[in-house]
Amino acid sequence: MNSNKRLFFKGLPRFVAENDHLEVDEAAESVYKWWWQSLRLSPVIWFAHETGAKPKDAAIAKVVEAFGDLRMGSFYKWWQQTGRNIFAESKRPSKVKLLALDQLQEHKFDSEKIYIEVPLTIRQQTIVKQFKELLASQHEGRKLNLAAYSQAEFKLHTKRYRLHTLQNEYWVLLYRLLHPAMEYWRIGDRLQIAPHLRLRDADGAIENIHESGRHSPKAHKNAMNSLTGRCLYKARFVLLNAERGSFPNYDAIELSDRYQPFGLKYQTEYRTATEDGNDESESAWKLWLKEEYAVSLKSEIARRNHIEAQLKMPDGKVRRKMDAFIAGESDLLS
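Above: the chain's sequence. Below: its structure in token form.
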């Protein structure tokens, strides 16, 4: 298919995929995947689809309607049915082109473009040098926010992001949602968000917390605690902004203790469905999260700790100890 007929996405590395199969594969490795993943961790979005209640915030209501039922666990199906339509640019970026002198009167001049006269009677090297100097005086260069010129229904908040950072923040938030009593440093250790901060020895045991040798386990633990806490702090703002149609966005959004996303009519039902009980009973949303993500979290921890092979051994120690390791009940895997 002619590439000019393919959809254009500012969030894909090559902007345009050669075919539908490659498009969804590239989307699954892009920032769009983590936008989708983040929204799936929203209790507000979940409750809206679970009950049909409409959020009071117009921006959140728009996301609920446009993104569809995010309880569906397949990104590939969601992209084909929804994602590619809401993220595609309605028109492609402009290109450099030659203006015909005999058609200047009909040309629509644009304030967001510059128009240059280029003499053809001087050397090409000179033209290029002068052009670069002139362009530098008129163009923002790396400071240009490309996302601001997006024509997509849902545009990226910024193109200045690191996928690895978004992924770490996502997994930290998911871990904390599934294990709310887990210490920050243990979450960071299990997810290996900072491998240089070594907390366990070769056998998997937590090293003695005292100053010894060339590194300090206590200092590493404190650093991991701080780093993981920061990931969680940022991930929560990313999620709140994603609910309102902006991603990746770390702007602070503070919600009061009286926050009622669906108004007073649904507040009791919403809190019952999304908050664990005082008797330690788990909410319907928490149970859904476990069903959807417990296996995924285990697989991610195994991958990050390079123990996938050991986990597959039916009678292996790692397999027997993995659940307690994830829950923070034990720090030993071998």
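The chain has three domains: 3-87, 101-149, 163-327.
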